[in-house]
Amino acid sequence: MAMAINKVIYDGSTLIDLTGDTVTADALYQGVKAHDKAGAAVTGTNPYNAATVDPQVTDILAAIAEKGVDTTGKGLGDIAALVAAIEAGGAKVATGKITPASNVLQMTIEHGLGMIPEIFLMVATGSYSTATNQYLFVGHYGGRSYSFLILSSKTSTSSYKSAITDDPDNFNAVVNKATETTIQVGAGINASYMFKSGAPYDWFAIGGLS
Amino acid sequence: MRYYAQYNDKNTLIAIGTGPGGQEITKDEYDRLLAEIRQKAEYVNKLYAGEIELSDIPADWQEEIQRRVDERIAAEGTADMQDISAEEALDIILGGEI
Fold it and tell me: How many angstroms separate the Cα of B12 from the Cα of each of A61, A101, B25, B88?
């Protein structure tokens, strides 16, 4: 068996250095192959595969539908219809948009819902093409300390990434704190900048579902 | 629709938005701030990437843009330290052009 190599130095110059990488099997999509910081081959075990999941519709709507709201035929392409469906199900929805003035790791958003949101959804508007690495996620701020869905903007990356995880360190967005009036969202500690300066993020705070 | 601007305790603009929160502003002011935010973001990206010099930036924005570039370098490293493609890595290993 070949010895794993995680650093290549040639003529005094570091050509490849994996020692600072944070790749782990559970952070990679199922079946995707990579090398970890030791140089060992790892195969992804995360079941949320971009090729098989359309998270913008299925995961988000499933999360809402789990709370008893009929989301049949509704999607993020018709936000008004989705909000109406949620409200028709007896829940309360607050919506807004926020655009950070600089790249930031976390933001506090005043949602004004009057209750702690059970689901908080943020949608990065993909039409702002200069903002890369935008993320879209829904956070369940219920009985669990961390449970969230992170989805990258389809239009900014040409592909989806998603994950439902209790490990906030290796993913890119978490709900750090929520009250009846505000919610603080931010990056996992291993992420770099998450919210991009100038990128508009639509948000939806949903409560009263359960 | 309600438009707002959000400032920190040093009176620095941290975000603009619609909905509840912040200090209410007019749509015209919102549009002006949005254009300014995006122009500054473009300057930060270009200065970080070495596509422009600090002197290409309006004088009253230079200090802020340089500070934001410095913060980005501290967080992400310099632009020339960013990841290279597998093809580039292979080319380097095989003795191709660097």
Answer: 37, 9, 15, 41
